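hey m, so remember when u said the tokens were messed up on ur end? i reran from scratch. heres the input so u can diff it against urs
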Amino acid sequence: MKSKSLLTTAILLALPFSSAAASEGLNSGDTAWMIVSTALVMMMTPAGLALFYGGMSRYKNLLNTFAMTFVAYCLASLVWMMWGYSMAFGPDKAGIIGGLDNLFLAGIGVDSLSGSIPTYVFALFQMTFAGITVALVLGSVVDRMKFSAWIVFTVLWVTFIYCPIAHWVWGGGWMGTMGALDFAGGTVVHINAGVAGLVLALVLGKRIGYGKEAMFPSSIAFTALGAALLWFGWFGFNAGSQLAADGVAGSAFLVTNTSAAMGALAWMFAEWLVEKRPTVLGLASGIVAGLVAITPAAGFVSLPASLIIGLVAGLLGFYFVVKVKHKLGYDDSLDAFGVHGMCGLWGALATGLFANPAVNEAGKGLFYGNPKQLWIQIISIAATAAFTAVGTLIVIYITKLLTGGLRVSEDTEVAGLDGSIHGERGFEIQ
């Protein structure tokens, strides 16, 4: 009897809390999943991307690549919380930008909710996307950009390029209203970063000796480890973008892994066939290509579609990086445009083809009877690329005015940025 009484008392005491949680709309399961997802995506930039890019850079620029990745994430974190979140997710202004009602997260408290999760968690999750997007741009310009110029560029680019596009797609802006599908960042993250990187690389010009001397990666082992961490973190990136722990999140998790695996194998076999050897760098690059391509489609497509998306991404990434880039002659140091820009474009188009209402009723593509969706996707790709190209060019010239130039001196570039700028060495050369 005594144990029954204690059990009854415990249940009665729990009821008011349960009722309050239900009435407020907070879901503890969703919240826990989103905290984990946020941590996974955070790891992608200062751990996964730093190693992935750092390993591909030359030994004399390894630490500089780490430093520029770290500082990009730090700056984006502060910009986002001070004004970026409000610009992206504040009250809509003509479909173009969010209002400034939430500067420094004003009006948001511990009880504020975004759907079934705390708004603080939602803001943090979105912050990690801003951080990795600008850091991806770095891949086009390692080995030759001034550290001071990168700092200024990062602040301006996150503010005036990333935040508006995030608002267009996810914050109530015109692109989302039009019906564009971008589950986790095909346009907002990958096309945006890829085009920006290409523009910045073209303005900076080629590295000294590009095309004339071998530029060996400092550590393929670092790059492989970075790819593995990116793959792991991408589950938070894609499955977390459902903002709930439900079946769509589970499906996004599944197709993300499948596309990455298929992308890796497609790149590897293409390289094996054409170059006569399967490299670890090729496998790592194929993983990322498959992950990039599935990102906009993750919450909308089924398993068979993810196989096709990953296959095409691996082949497209390999062909563009190995063949097309060299024919065009531009110097995209670590292939940010070839992998993120091109595979992001393919993923956005594929979403318009393969979006399956049986997976997510919010999306219905061409192959399921809605040809209009493919046209909407094309418009979203073109608008993102055009805005990013022009906007990034403006940001570049403002940065040049503020810092006296974008590029390090010839002596600094030849000597290496690790020692010249940071006074450190990533490796001891005997």
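this time it looks ok to me. The longest helix spans residues 371-403. if urs says something different then somethings off w ur setup not the seq
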